[in-house]
């Protein structure tokens, strides 16, 4: 699913799409969230889960140059062509 179509989906439809079409990469702790990183087609998507409230707060694309990329790349080797 292309990013322009994915971003129009509701939060629950985004989650469903990631579960059926995406590939889980890794997760990190980021402030109050557990953030799961998925690969969907040729872009990364983050799922921000708040364990204290037991809910997903946000599902959004991870921009390749975002500073959080370092947290992920410290755990797994991310393809460079997707990070550019």
List descriptors.
alpha+beta; 37% strand; four-stranded antiparallel beta sheet; 4 strands; 84 residues
Shape: globular
N to C succession of SSEs: HHEEEEHH
Mean pLDDT across every amino acid position: 87
Whole-angstrom Rg: 12 Å
Spatial strand sequence of the major β-sheet: 1-2-3-4
Number of structural domains: 1
Instruction: Give the biggest beta sheet.
Output: 4 strands, antiparallel
The counted number of beta strands is 4
Commentary on this structure:
By secondary structure, the protein is α+β, with helices and mostly antiparallel strands. It has one domain. Helices cover 29% and strands 37% of the residues. The protein has a 4-stranded antiparallel sheet with strand order 1-2-3-4, covered by helices on one side. A hairpin with a 2-residue loop joins strand 2 and strand 3. The longest helix is centred in the first third of the chain and has 11 residues, at 11-21. The radius of gyration is 12 Å and the shape is globular. 15% of the residues are buried.
């Amino acid at each position: 699913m292309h990013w322009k179509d994915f971003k129009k989906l509701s939060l629950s439809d985004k989650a469903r799409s990631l579960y059926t079409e995406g590939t889980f990469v890794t997760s990190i702790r980021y402030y109050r969230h557990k953030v799961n990183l998925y690969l969907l087609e040729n872009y990364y998507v983050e799922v921000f889960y708040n364990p204290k409230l037991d809910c997903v707060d946000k599902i959004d694309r991870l921009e390749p140059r975002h500073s959080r990329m370092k947290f992920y790349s410290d755990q797994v080797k991310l393809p460079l062509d997707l990070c550019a």
